[in-house]
Amino acid sequence: MPYMIAAVLLIAGALILLFVGSNVLVGEVRNIGDTRRLRSRMADVSRSDAILDEEHEGGGFFELVGRATTRSQSTLNEFEQIMRSTGRYDAGAPYWLAGVRLVGGIALGVIGFGVALFLAKMNTAILTGVAGFAIGYLGPRYYLSSVAKARRRRIERELPFLIDMLLLLVRSGASIEQAFRHLTQEEADGLGTIKGTLERLVNDIDQGKGYEVSLQRWGARLAIDEGREFSALLIQSLAHGTELTSALKIFSDTLIERRMNAARMTIGQRMTQLTVVMMLFMMPPLLIVIAGPAVSRLIEGLTKVNGG
């Protein structure tokens, strides 16, 4: 009987300890999750150039995975620039890319491993799984980088036309806000990509964000150095009351000169590459054509001498 009472008390104590320990464990897990969410939100707020839209805040599976697995600030900054260059500006965009990269790598790795295991041996399956993971892990980043690069090139081509249009409207007597509103309402074939950013700029002004903040956000949306410089120029002109016409003309001339210098550098690089290609692929056949007959006669002469 005493042994039974002791066993019951031991079991009861163990259950109580298990209950208390499980509650403590659940509480600690919740605290860790809250801490991680708080850190991720603080990272969103503290990131440089935190001019982020309030869109796409629904999260999503990929964003949740990215927030749970990504801690490198340099990686987040890189992904933020990529996503901003593609036209997405919310705080969760870099985490979304990180989640897509990880989930895509795991999914392709598992699929490749399973298919190869069904059709071939274990060694081939492992190699196929690793290759699938590499493709799924690296593919989204490089694809979005190419999309971002193409968008930046379009904006770089459209920006000089935008400056000329603004200069024409300002000279005709319109204010800079009226000029922006006019460009959003008119059909301009040369502003296909920038027009969307102008509409967001006008919406920011209508929402009462102020000219300085609205122009800063617009420069961040352009995602090119010339766009940020142009927005800073407009902010300086509005803040200090300087003449906007002359500032636009000087910036336009500076931008044209930069494009000319970049074109000259590109031409110089292409000439060097063409020279290397010519040396590798054109000089050997040319030497064969020129020196071939002489070498053939020399071989024939040596053959005759040896035979004689």
UniProtKB/TrEMBL annotation:
The UniProt record lists the keyword Iron: no
Subcellular location as annotated: Cell membrane
Name of a matching Pfam family: T2SSF
Membrane topology: Multi-pass membrane protein
InterPro entries, sorted: T2SS_GspF_dom
Chief location category: membrane
The keyword Translocase is annotated on this UniProt entry: no
Keyword terms: Cell membrane, Membrane, Transmembrane, Transmembrane helix
Type II secretion system protein GspF domain span: 163-290
Membrane-spanning segments: 6-26, 93-119, 125-144, 274-295
GO cellular component: plasma membrane
The protein's name in its UniProt record: Type II secretion system protein GspF domain-containing protein
Organism listed in the record: Zavarzinia aquatilis
